[in-house]
Write a structure and sequence with these properties.
Blueprint lengths: L2 H5 L3 H24 L6 H22 L1
Helix pairs in contact: 2-3
């Protein structure tokens, strides 16, 4: 998810997307531990998306 897309979301949508992304990340890590996944770069991109969502939530809380 791009930063421009994240800025357009409400706080509730950000929180929901963050929880879904964290769940997907945990599932992907588990699948990769059991047997290597086809594209391991998915893990990196999902982790970065989680960081973007968390950063935007924190930024909004501080304002």
């Amino acid at each position: 998810m791009k930063q421009s897309e994240i800025k357009g979301l409400s706080a509730a949508q950000l929180q929901e997307n963050l929880s879904q992304a964290k769940k997907a990340y945990a599932n992907l890590k588990l699948a990769h531990a059991i047997s290597p996944i086809e594209n391991p770069l998915q893990i990196r991109s999902l982790r970065r998306s989680i960081a973007r969502l968390a950063t935007e939530l924190t930024k909004r809380d501080l304002q």
